[in-house]
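Predict the holo structure. Ligand: adenosine-5'-triphosphate.
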Amino acid sequence: MSVRVVARIRPLLESELDKDIIVTAASNDDRKTSNVVKIPSPKNEAEEFSFAFNSVYDNQATQEHLFTAEVAPHLKSLFQGLDVTIFAYGVTGTGKTHTMRGGLKLAERGVIPRLLSGVFRRAKKITKDSGGDTTVSVALSYYEIYNDKVFDLLEPLEKRTPSGLPLRAEANGKTVVAGLSERPCEELKDFERLYIESNINRVTAATKLNAHSSRSHAILRVKVTQVTGDMVHESTASAIDLAGSEDNRRTDNGKERLVESAAINKSLFVLSQCIDAISRGERRIPFRESKMTRILSLGQNNGITIMILNLAPLRSYHLDTLSSLNVSSRAKRIEVREIENEIVYKQAPRMNSNSSATGMARQPLRPLANAHNIHSGAVAAAAAAESKPSDRPVKAFNVYTDKLKPIPTSRPGANTAIKRTSNTNTQKRISESDGGSRPSKITRPEIPRPTLVPRHAKPSQPAISADLIEAMVEKKVSEILASRTQSAPVPPEVNDEVQKRLEALERRIEDGRHDDTRSEGLRFLLMARQRKERGQDASALKMYEMALPFFPGQAKLIGKIEKLKARLEDKKDGRDMEASDLRDDDEQPVERKAKKSSRKAEDIDDYIGAEADVDDESFVGRKKKGKKSRAVKVAPISTIEDGPSSQDLLDIINSRDVAMIMSLQGFGPKKARDLVDYLELMSEGDGGLIASLTQLRTKNSPANIVRLLIVGRSFWYSEEVDDSIRAEYVHARKSTSIEIAAHGQTSSGDG
Ligand SMILES: Nc1ncnc2c1ncn2[C@@H]1O[C@H](COP(=O)(O)OP(=O)(O)OP(=O)(O)O)[C@@H](O)[C@H]1O
């Protein structure tokens, strides 16, 4: 079966109601449901591109509708032992998190909570229908990939190591995160609690690593284990909220961003390359170039894969939308093998040296000849009896070793089927499970015989350990990336003067922080300016457009928007490649244009020049001089102790008002919502307000929120903050570039 790709076009947001819609859903046959996305050519409005998908959901589609049609039918497969992967892909702000996580209200709940609800419901039914013979347990893992490093979201921040958790290829071909924690969930409420708490972790963790919060992929794994007698059937549902692919297009063109710390961009780029390579039938698929693609293992994993392509209908997303339409329409050509996970036969617990303490008889030592045969009971005893007395005096007993032994092609009696495929109908041999008076031996290292050979694997390759291969690949990738860095154009440095202006604007935002509307508008302006300085014109344009409703009719702001639009148009002309390259071979009868790899050089002087005739957002109006400004300390670290009291912070936190919380630097809509969710959850028991920052900590918030506020916002200071957090903040402040990146990205949507 191919990857199922469905597109979802989000509705216009309130701030976008006057915007131009260019993406529509249609049907290419007479079906009632839509299966085509239509979008005009960026070069010629009269020409329309059509991208066909398995299904297309328009702005009317509810969360329930999407779930019922796309995910619910696969719950059955999950319980039949198939792994199910659902991932949301799309440009920043197109609704991935809305789709996967959704809101708190029942109707707004996204795929993940609905999936869990379905899992628990089905689990109950199975147990009931089996009269209690089958028990189902559910366990959760949740992690993020930030900067190409894996961090466990269920563990406190203190447990994180700078390098994150390693990935490991398992014998069955799956890639797993080594050392990832797993929490059992007995009911939906357990899940909800864990999920909300760990989403807070995600936010905080990202801030700890200095404000790339919206730039992480979040992966939730739901392991379902069904036990009937000694049969254990395990399957996993993975729900993945990929970070926004806002910069993917730019990376694709110039490659200059590939090696930047925002490795998320690289991983999305690698993902699109993997999809291209698979759909072209190439032998080499660059999965290993990013952790996200290794984990996603598109086309390598068995089971069911659903890709939800999130789209914004707006013209301002035009090229980005085309880009993601193109990538995902190729993804639907990827074949996934629908193979159930093997049933594992449960055996007695491992007997270790302490086991005698439990009163169980120690397993007798057996001759070496049987070292890798997993016999038990009579079979093992018979084998031992049959074995000739050895001439060799030493090691006349079984030695457990991690070293692999060659597997004989035919090994009568050898138990290679501790794991059995459910579809071989192999009957469990009585001698293996019931035959002995001693516990069967399950502790022997299992011989890694992949039952499924990855499609492109060469069977005759010499045995190199997975770690070694990984090290070699990583070394190679780093070399390639390093050489790309050297040849890549140097990103524009932010000029001192511009930096001062940004800081001035920042100060004004701080001054206006009690005027929510104004300060939110200013915040968009600040983000716009920062993005503009970094050459992210499209993103800057978006931010300016978002600022406009706060300063309606402001000629200078409108002027800026127009200028940016014009500049983007110019760039577009220099990048015909995108529009043409975005064509889907199947659906687009349009002539493919030659790929232009060059892009107009982006000149920082141009940006500064463009700004010169427009005073620093003077249209927003300044606060009257003399009015006492709040004690906001921008730069000197030595003075941060004079910063505002933690009461300010608490007032905002206790307001539980998403808009108010968003007025804090570092809080986008999602982070703000996370915080509100968290507070709601925390207050379930006592219903009270947060009285001190310490209380946040004692409420198992492991200083996350405080940390987020301090590091993200940079100016808050409280004596309740650890020295370590402060040191972190000081460190962050030392680097202007980090700070700019921080301010630029924290609010850009929280991944
Ligand atoms: N189907 C929808 N119905 C209503 N609102 C939606 C829908 N999809 C998205 N939105 C709203 O659009 C905004 C952006 O959505 P969301 O944050 O989920 O995007 P995203 O793709 O996850 O962005 P990022 O990549 O930055 O994480 C949010 O305010 C969200 O509530």
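Residues 489-630 form one domain. The chain has a mean pLDDT of 64.
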